[in-house]
């Protein structure tokens, strides 16, 4: 049957291989990351953040990002992305042919210094340099500016909405192809999400491309739904809900991929995802991450049995 054109589509971007693993002590081998990627692709995921081009001494877990990206580029229909913290990282992403590079910009001045050793405006200036490097190389690597701590920060406390909106616009002016908003430390609530995403949409329109929520205080899925109501159709998530920024005190797990896929499908959105296959992958990843804290609820309850008796 052809897809119903009235069915809303939603994209779940799996960020477990980057955001998920960056705070996990157990080193996952390149072979297992590739197995993870292949299974995620087979389960229908078409956008995956595969690693970070950061100094290896900072994040040895992600030292094999170039190899994982090279494999991701062989998978049909897959749109891989990588995180880049500065121009050097961007040059590596461009050289490796990454379709997307994601630049994390913290709207909290204090978290920005802790995470990237730069002020938010210095990161904006870096984005302009990345755009120039990309254009000079004739590369097709596109730039997403992800504005983090958009709902507050565990180091600084309050982050004014006006500052978040100013930085979204500054990123686009500097040459970012699109922008997204992130709740790095799980301070967001659905009403606040709706308000900020509506304002962001009014300001930058279709440049606003996604939402990244952490489930630190149990509001991750509610926040996704609030963002959905404002027209957001791309959501970051991690298999088994792992993740968190190592330089943001109190940051913990991302929204769980399999739970989010289940919610979106139950809401009637077309995700292209096979939820039982995601649950099977979660079991495999759980075996690789023995002793680590995992999250999510669908794995425990299982899928509802709705077929007529
Ligand atoms: C930005 C830096 C590099 C500054 O770190 P720095 O020490 O100030 O860097 P530097 O420019 O002084 O260079 C020091 C050395 O590192 C090298 N270097 C410099 N850059 C790179 C690079 N890209 N790749 C490889 N090597 C690099 C550079 O070449 C030099 O090497 P040396 O001359 O000493 O041999 C560092 O602070 C950093 O990597 N920070 C990133 C930390 C991180 O990964 N945080 C987590 C991601 S953000 C997040 O999780 C939030 C998010 C995105 O998920 C959304 C949300 O929830 O909000």
Automatic annotation (TrEMBL):
Q: Which Gene3D superfamilies match?
A: Aldolase class I
**Which biological process annotations from GO are given for this protein?**
ketone body biosynthetic process; L-leucine catabolic process
Residue ranges constituting the Pyruvate carboxyltransferase domain according to the UniProt record: 10-279
Q: Output the InterPro entries linked to this UniProt entry.
A: AIPM/Hcit_synth_CS, Aldolase_TIM, HMGL, PYR_CT
- Pfam families given in the database record: HMGL-like
What does the UniProt keyword field contain? Lyase, Metal-binding, Transferase
Which Enzyme Commission numbers does its entry carry? Answer: 4.1.3.4
Q: Name one GO molecular function term.
A: acyltransferase activity, acyl groups converted into alkyl on transfer
Domain of life, source organism: Bacteria
The cross-references to PANTHER family, in alphabetical order and at most eight, read: HYDROXYMETHYLGLUTARYL-COA LYASE
| Family to which this protein belongs | Belongs to the alpha-IPM synthase/homocitrate synthase family.
Name of the featured protein: Hydroxymethylglutaryl-CoA lyase
What organism does the UniProt record list as the source? Alicycliphilus denitrificans (strain DSM 14773 / CIP 107495 / K601)
């Amino acid at each position: 049957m052809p897809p119903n054109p009235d069915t809303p589509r939603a994209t779940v971007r799996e960020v477990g291989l980057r955001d998920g693993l960056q705070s996990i002590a157990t080193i996952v081998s390149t072979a297992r990351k590739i197995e993870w990627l292949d299974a995620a692709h087979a389960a229908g995921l078409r956008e995956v953040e595969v690693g970070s081009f950061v100094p290896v001494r900072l994040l040895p877990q992600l030292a094999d990002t170039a190899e994982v990206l090279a494999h991701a580029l062989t998978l049909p229909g897959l749109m891989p992305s990588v995180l880049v913290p500065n121009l050097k990282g961007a040059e590596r992403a461009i050289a490796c042919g990454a379709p997307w590079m994601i630049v994390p910009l913290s709207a909290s001045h204090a978290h920005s210094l802790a995470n990237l050793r730069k002020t938010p405006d210095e990161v904006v200036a870096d984005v302009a340099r990345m755009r120039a490097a990309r254009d000079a190389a004739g590369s097709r690597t596109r730039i997403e500016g992800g504005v983090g701590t958009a709902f507050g920060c565990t180091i600084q406390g309050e982050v004014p909405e006006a500052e978040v909106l100013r930085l979204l616009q500054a990123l686009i002016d500097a040459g970012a192809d699109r922008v997204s908003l992130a709740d790095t430390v799980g301070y967001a609530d659905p009403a606040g999400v709706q308000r900020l995403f509506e304002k962001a949409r009014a300001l930058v329109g279709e440049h606003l491309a996604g939402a990244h929520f952490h489930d630190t205080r149990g509001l991750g899925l509610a926040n996704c739904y609030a963002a959905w109501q404002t027209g957001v159709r791309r959501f970051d998530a991690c298999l088994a809900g792992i993740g968190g920024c190592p330089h943001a005190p109190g940051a913990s797990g991302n929204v769980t991929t399999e739970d989010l896929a289940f919610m979106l499908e139950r809401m009637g959105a077309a995700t292209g995802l096979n939820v039982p296959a995601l649950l099977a992958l979660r079991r495999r990843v759980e075996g690789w991450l023995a002793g680590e804290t995992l999250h999510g609820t669908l794995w425990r309850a299982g899928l509802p049995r709705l077929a007529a008796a």
